[in-house]
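Hi R.,

Here's the chain you asked about this morning:
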Amino acid sequence: MTTQTIPRVDLTPAAADVIEKLRAQHGPLMFHQSGGCCDGSSPMCYAVGDFIIGSSDVWLGQINGCDFWMSDDQFEYWRHTHLTVDVTRGRGASFSLEIPMGIRFLIRSRLFGENEMNHLTPIRIGGEA
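And here is the predicted structure, written out as tokens:
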């Protein structure tokens, strides 16, 4: 019996629709969530190459073909948490690509169950190949 890897990050159908619209306009995309200023708790969507991943950023997986990264200090808080990217109406105070659409990405979360913790998607650190 094969054990399935459990994703650390997922998305809602509404977020997938927004990603498709943004991809059509901007090309390949990526997400980053930091603990910094502005909407630090909101994931930011960028065209690939418009945000430089640091050597300590943590890759959590992909959503709809987009890499999802998080700053290492945020990851320390969220490492036991499943993240779901969603969208909501309203402008965030960020540079994320969806802002001109009058919406913003947000995170919904839940703690991983004990049985999930041993089967999570392996992380990758920014400087790793």
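One quick note: DSSP finds three helices and eight strands in the chain.

Cheers,
M.
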